[in-house]
Amino acid sequence: MSTGGRDRRQRHRLYEIVLREGRAEDILTYIDGALLVDAWPELVLPALVRRAWERTALG
Predict the structure, then answer these.
(1) pLDDT above 80 (res 57)
(2) How far is CA 41 from CA 1, 2, 24, 51, in A?
(3) What Å distances lie between residue 50 and 1, 11, 39, 47, CA to CA?
(4) Would the pLDDT of 1 be above 70?
(5) In terms of Cα–Cα distance, which of 24, 35, 28 is closest to 58?
(6) Which pLDDT score is estimated for 59?
(7) What distances in angstroms separate CA 49 from CA 4, 6, 8, 20, one per listed residue?
(8) Is 43 helix (H, G, I), strand (E, B) or coil?
(9) 3-state SS assignment for residue 3
(10) CA 9 → CA 3, 13, 16, 25, distances in Å?
(11) According to the model, what pLDDT value does residue 54 have?
């Protein structure tokens, strides 16, 4: 059985938590930029957090 889907979901959940609640050092430690771009459409984030990230990091 492949764990790829589970790993992806776990990474998305981690990213959601870190983007909402993390400090700068958490972002640097836990977020991979390429994987964030790939995951972005699927992440469940408050609109305010999503807009802030889209303006700064993904814009």
Answers:
(1) no
(2) 26, 23, 22, 13
(3) 34, 17, 12, 5
(4) no
(5) 35
(6) 59
(7) 27, 24, 21, 7
(8) coil
(9) coil
(10) 10, 6, 10, 22
(11) 87
- Digit-coded pLDDT (tens) for 25-37: 999 999 999 999 9
**pLDDT of 48 higher than 70:** yes
Structure tokens at 40: 């972005």
* Interacting residues of 26 by C-beta distance below 8 A, sequence separation 6+: 18
Contact 42, 50 (CB under 8 A): no
One-character DSSP codes across 11-26: HHHHHHHHHHH--HHH
> Can you tell me the distance from the alpha carbon of 3 to that of 24, in angstroms, rounded to the nearest whole number?
29
